[in-house]
TrEMBL record, chains A, B:
<dbReference type="GO" id="GO:0046872">
    <property type="term" value="F:metal ion binding"/>
</dbReference>
<dbReference type="InterPro" id="IPR006668">
    <property type="entry name" value="Mg_transptr_MgtE_intracell_dom"/>
</dbReference>
<keyword id="KW-0129">CBS domain</keyword>
<dbReference type="InterPro" id="IPR006667">
    <property type="entry name" value="SLC41_membr_dom"/>
</dbReference>
<keyword id="KW-0472">Membrane</keyword>
<feature type="transmembrane region" description="Helical">
    <location>
        <begin position="384"/>
        <end position="410"/>
    </location>
</feature>
<dbReference type="GO" id="GO:0015095">
    <property type="term" value="F:magnesium ion transmembrane transporter activity"/>
</dbReference>
<keyword id="KW-1003">Cell membrane</keyword>
<protein>
    <recommendedName>
        <fullName>Magnesium transporter MgtE</fullName>
    </recommendedName>
</protein>
<keyword id="KW-1133">Transmembrane helix</keyword>
<keyword id="KW-0460">Magnesium</keyword>
<dbReference type="InterPro" id="IPR038076">
    <property type="entry name" value="MgtE_N_sf"/>
</dbReference>
<feature type="domain" description="CBS">
    <location>
        <begin position="200"/>
        <end position="258"/>
    </location>
</feature>
<keyword id="KW-0479">Metal-binding</keyword>
<dbReference type="InterPro" id="IPR036739">
    <property type="entry name" value="SLC41_membr_dom_sf"/>
</dbReference>
<comment type="subunit">
    <text>Homodimer.</text>
</comment>
<feature type="transmembrane region" description="Helical">
    <location>
        <begin position="284"/>
        <end position="302"/>
    </location>
</feature>
Length: 451, 451
């Protein structure tokens, strides 16, 4: 299974350099479309194009190219060839490509397409990004309720080359209202004379065009579906979302949440291809916000300047105590954000979870307090050890409760809970940690002598 | 689509309390197996069991229960009933359940099962957790190369009730060696007299029993497969992994990596059901390690005690500078860990990415330096502002380079890159940040006067 696309690309480049097109095509023989796409992405666009032109199933190969690479290649194609290729692509991939072309390319391409394809692109591209409508394809298999099983199978044989899946067929009436679903498995098991309305499952799990793609993906996973039919507000079938697209959405959303957890504002796409400017823009927000968040910690420190001057040993432990709250809080928020994203935990669980989190935080805080007071005793004295222990327990508890609550609060205000990122938690815990630590110190330690 | 399982569970409990079993069963009519399972999980085990006994498709419903709930219910079942239920479950779910029972329950159950089921459980449970073998099912459809299409369809009609999918059939010889794969789509399109060896795709994408389940899931996603055949070392077919199991693996692995990113050592499973003890154990490791990591920061601070005493203003900015390195480093490592997990980035990209990361870090550092030096000038003077600016740039760059490199280093030593968690990065950046900051301060600021 260890295909190295680099090796293949080297062979391709050498063959193409010597104009040995057949040899290059030979090197790609037996490879699967996604592997061919990966190899072709490594050669120059105009050479990739020369090969693609001659490969069987080129629309499928082309559909596997990276989005950016598709657009780059599209510039190389003569207009008629591009139109033919685009015509052969699955409806959802075709629409995605079309939306990425610049207006000039779009205007050149449209007249070269068949009428049906043009309308399909217009319709599919009208849905907002991130909704079921933008994810779905219009290449699905339809049946009528009055058909016999034999007629249905004949109809599927006819539709098979175009439909994304014929394993699930959707039963619609004359107004395209979704009546039911029937699987190919049930069709081949049924008596040929039975009618579709006898065989179909009428209570279909479906989605609406305007729904969030994340909810669509979750429904497909929950019910282990091959495809989810999508209807408009009138209940008419307008497309399907297939399981493989749902897998891609789930993976994208996980990456998104992952990035947000570290304070990267939105997904940067494929990290390898991300530009310096993009990475900078996506990362700078929280980092700079944190700097200004420090105004509060700084004010706290300024307020307790005397106690610090009198007990410089406090400074040794300042980074540790401040970090501990942030670390414990990040753990809490990460557990919560992920549980909310997978749907394990919902709003009304908050109160129950808060009680448990407080207990866990108390235990974690006590353990860390034991460790830090040992260090404090070695470097300071028993009073310093006491200050550290009390501060650690309080700071960890505050951090955990903030970390656990913030995702719920954000969600309450219809914000993405994943924005409760490590840097945000750190900023909030910093300020509270400094104040708690120095306040406790000021109550226990002498103010003016050196302890 | 908004089924509230709580409402259904309330209706169920009320009906069961009055011994109105038919009414309870009515409430579940029309619901899908996974929804019934969710509702039944909310009523008492012995009541859930009374209903389950009377429901059609109960093995499928039971398979959707949480793992813990399955085991809890299994204790309620009379042995013969449990055996019948287990016999009806898909092979992979059955094995998972069996492995979770305690030895006494296992020994009671085994004799009550049919011979074939017993052997299937023994064989499937012999594979190590986390491998393809532990994930696969033995319920797949097989064909012989000499069969005609008509014979193959007849055979599939016969196998359909047991196989997890008949949309992909696997062609094997008499020694069970995997020869090819044929889709139901191709079968129903082909002439009935054609033979399977003419129709099958001989170059099958497959996996080996010992492979990591994550690699299996990635392959299924990459090639958009419905199922991946799994072979032993001899190339003999021993099972298949279906796309829905691959989706579950991908989601689990993402959760795992997510938790690790916050220093939660391994997955805690379903957060809602996690006990206090489990949460404590999984979270305490990195938090306590961080406390001891502070020995280094503390030593750094102790070394520069004089410069701090002479310039107390330095303390105001200590938490900020230390956090900034950790935050920027966490961003780098999170981006990298996720890119490595999805396979976007591999080892040999390291050098190229390092150069880009250093540039991004320089830009981020300069922006943050501008912000912090403004604060430094307001609270201190221009020398303090200079110290802060230089420190910030250095600390952010060190943090980013550490954050980016650590996942690669861990992977080089065959450790999980996801262990490069925020707390670890924080610990490392703490110590280096303190030293960098105070060293720069000691070079620029006067040692004994108050600046």
């Amino acid at each position: 299974m260890s295909i190295t696309h680099e090796d293949i690309a080297l062979v391709l480049s050498a063959a193409l350099h010597n104009d040995q097109l057949d040899e290059a095509l030979d090197a790609l023989k037996g490879l699967r479309p996604v592997d061919i796409a990966d190899a072709l992405e490594l050669v120059a666009p105009e050479q990739a194009w020369r090969l693609l032109e001659r490969l069987p199933g080129r629309a499928e190969i082309y559909a596997y190219f990276d989005a950016d690479e598709q657009v780059r290649l599209a510039r190389e194609f003569p207009r008629a060839t591009l139109a033919r290729l685009v015509g052969e692509m699955p409806a959802d991939e075709r629409t995605d490509l079309f939306k990425r072309l610049d207006p000039k390319q779009q205007n050149e391409l449209l007249p070269a397409l068949a009428q049906a394809e043009r309308e399909d692109i217009r319709r599919l591209s009208s849905y907002e990004e991130g909704t079921a409508g933008a994810l779905m394809t219009s290449d699905y298999a339809m049946l009528k309720p009055g058909m016999t099983v034999a007629q249905a199978l004949a109809s599927l044989r006819h539709e098979a080359p175009d439909a994304e899946t014929i394993y699930q067929s959707y039963v619609i009436d004359d107004e395209r209202r979704l009546l039911g679903v029937v699987s190919l498995r049930d069709l081949i098991l049924a008596h040929p004379d039975k009618t579709i309305d006898q065989l179909m499952i009428a209570d279909v799990v479906s989605g609406e065009v305007g729904e969030d793609q994340e909810d669509i993906a979750k429904r497909i996973t929950r019910y282990d579906l091959l495809a989810l039919p999508i209807t408009d507000q009138m209940g008419c079938l307008v497309g399907i979302v297939t399981y493989d697209d749902a897998m891609d959405v789930a993976s994208e959303e996980a990456t998104d949440d992952f990035h947000k957890s570290a304070g990267v504002t939105t997904s940067v796409g494929n990290l390898k291809d991300a530009t310096i400017g993009l990475l900078y823009r996506k990362r700078v927000f929280w980092l700079v916000l944190l700097v200004f968040g420090n105004l509060f910690s700084g004010a706290g420190i300024a307020h307790f300047e005397d106690i610090i001057a009198a007990n410089l040993v406090l400074v040794f432990f300042l980074p540790l105590l401040v970090d501990s709250g942030g670390n414990a809080g990040s753990q809490s928020s990460t557990l919560m954000v992920r549980a909310m994203a997978t749907g394990e935990v919902v709003m009304k669980d908050w109160f129950k979870l808060l009680g448990r989190e407080a207990t866990v935080a108390l235990l974690l805080g006590c353990t860390m307090a034991a460790a830090v007071s040992l260090l404090g005793y070695i470097r300071g004295d028993s009073l310093v050890a006491l200050v550290l222990a009390l501060s650690m327990v309080s700071i960890v508890m505050v951090g955990c409760v903030i970390g656990m609550s913030l995702p719920f609060v954000l969600s309450k205000f219809n914000l993405d809970p994943a924005s409760a990122s490590a840097p945000l938690i750190t900023s909030v815990c910093d300020a509270s940690g400094v104040v708690v630590y120095l306040y406790i110190a000021s109550q226990i330690l002498p103010g003016m002598s050196m302890g």
